[in-house]
Amino acid sequence: MKFLILNGPNLNMLGIREPGIYGNGTYEELKMRITDHSITVGVEVEIFQSNHEGVLVDKLQESYFNKIDGIVINPAAYTHTSVALLDALKSIAIPTVEVHISKVEERENFRQVSYVRQAVIKTITGKGFDGYLEAIDYLKEYLEKNERKSTKG
Ligand code: DQA
């Protein structure tokens, strides 16, 4: 099973940006935690970050051709603005979990909109870096369940 972990703008600044909201852990630490967890649960992961909307769209399209089984996406600020990311997720139709490090539902009004939410199977917020690990577990279970269903006919 191969998952893409896709991170949007400013997530490379974790550890530096607003530690009161996002914590002190760096992006490198996040990547290490995701890698360690994926080894533990036996899935393959590619972790990718970009500050550019079009690059994120390209990466999502690529995952269709690269036969990615599941996606964990934190679109960061593009969550609240990007129809392009929503359309890309709809185009590829790969099971996707939306993750936010902070509890977006308790923050500013402009963060209450999520375009990608229409195309995801689950949203996890406010669990810090653990949210990514929970998303991986959820996707794995979801895909295993669906596989069992399809082999039963
Ligand atoms: C975020 C929440 C977004 O509103 C914000 O723009 C981010 C990070 C989060 O992980 O909590 O950059 O997606």
Highest-level CATH class: Alpha Beta
The third-level CATH topology is: Rossmann fold
Percentage of residues in DSSP E strands: 15-25%
Give a short account of the largest sheet.
5 strands, parallel
- Chemical compounds bound to the protein: 1,3,4-trihydroxy-5-OXO-cyclohexanecarboxylic acid
Shape category: globular
CATH homolog superfamily: Dehydroquinase, class II
CATH architecture: 3-Layer(aba) Sandwich
Structural class: alpha/beta
Quickly count the domains: 1
Distance linking N and C termini: 21 Å
How many β-strand stretches?
5
**Average pLDDT rating:** 97
Indicate the topology.
Layout: E1 2-7, H1 19-22, H2 27-41, E2 44-49, H3 53-65, E3 70-74, H4 83-92, E4 96-100, E5 122-125, H5 130-152
Parallel strand pairs: 1-2, 1-3, 3-4, 4-5
Helix pairs in contact: 2-5, 3-4
Bound molecules: 1,3,4-trihydroxy-5-OXO-cyclohexanecarboxylic acid.
Short characterization:
Helix content is 42%, strand content 17%. It has one domain: 3-Layer(aba) Sandwich (Rossmann fold), CATH 3.40.50.9100. The protein has 5 helices and 5 strands, in the order E-H-H-E-H-E-H-E-E-H.
How would you portray this structure in words?
By secondary structure, this protein is α/β, with parallel strands linked by helices. The chain has one domain (2-152): 3-Layer(aba) Sandwich (Rossmann fold). It is 42% helix and 17% strand. It has five helices and five strands, in the order βααβαβαββα. The protein has helices at 19-22, 27-41, 53-65, 83-92, 130-152, and strands spanning 2-7, 44-49, 70-74, 96-100, 122-125. A five-stranded parallel β-sheet has the order 2-1-3-4-5, sandwiched between helices. Helix 4 (83-92) links the parallel strand 3 and strand 4 (96-100). The longest helix is centred in the C-terminal third of the chain and has 23 residues, at 130-152. The radius of gyration is 15 Å and the shape is globular. The mean pLDDT is 97. The site of 1,3,4-trihydroxy-5-OXO-cyclohexanecarboxylic acid (DQA) has 10 residues, from loops.
